[in-house]
Amino acid sequence: MIGEALDQVLAAIARHRGVVVWMVALAAGLALTGGAALGAVVRSASDPASTPATAPPSAVLETLPPGRATVQGVVLEVRPRGLLLRMGNGRRTIVITDAATIYRRDGRSVPRATLQRGQRVLALGHVGEAGFLRARVVALRGQPRPPQVGLPDPTTARER
């Protein structure tokens, strides 16, 4: 009984091969479109504070495991809501800051305005679900590096 039904289905498919090909192509297209739409919805629902606004598309941002963390690196960009850092391993990450973030240099509190591109920093805080550090304290270390003449800008240079 099941064998007869299977034979009939296979015979129908053989007779209408063109229709079956179009149906399979349509189903694949719908699955692809639906998956892309679902991915777009999930991506747009993420925390806007954790998404890089101006990072070069070739830059790979490092995310960190949730929990308390310390990150150190060189400031590539100072943003209104945080910093773009290049860590010691060469990877980039975002450090989110707010009005409660404390900035310190040589054991003393300093204003956020003293933070500059090229400055070495140590940030302490908590990593959220998005994988980026929300800093409670940012310690400025040393002096900012002066821009080097004739070398490409590290924030726009292509990674290889």
Description:
The protein has 2 domains: 2-44; 67-141, Nucleic acid-binding proteins (OB fold (Dihydrolipoamide Acetyltransferase, E2P), Beta Barrel), CATH 2.40.50.140. Helices cover 26% and strands 29% of the residues. It starts with a helix and ends in a 19-residue tail after the last strand. Mean pLDDT is 77; it is low at 40-53. The chain is elongated and about 85 Å long. The protein has helices at 2-15, 17-44, and strands at residues 67-79, 82-87, 92-96, 102-105, 108-109, 120-127, 133-141. The protein is α+β, with helices and mostly antiparallel strands and 160 residues long. It has a 5-stranded mixed β-barrel with strand order 1-2-3-7-6.
Which tags fit this structure?
OB fold (Dihydrolipoamide Acetyltransferase, E2P), 2 helices, single chain, 160 residues, elongated, five-stranded mixed β-barrel, alpha+beta
Low-confidence stretches: 40-53
What CATH architecture of the largest domain do you see? Beta Barrel
Query: Helix amount, in percent?
Result: 25-40%
Strand order of the largest sheet: 1-2-3-7-6
CATH class of the largest domain: Mainly Beta
Largest sheet composition: 5 strands, mixed, barrel
Shape: elongated
How far apart are the termini? 62 Å
Radius of gyration: 26 Å
Number of domains: 2
* Structural category: alpha+beta
Mean pLDDT: 77
> Secondary-structure element order, as H and E?
HHEEEEEEE
The number of helical segments is: 2
Under CATH, the topology of the largest domain can be stated as OB fold (Dihydrolipoamide Acetyltransferase, E2P)
Q: What would CATH call the homologous superfamily of the largest domain?
A: Nucleic acid-binding proteins
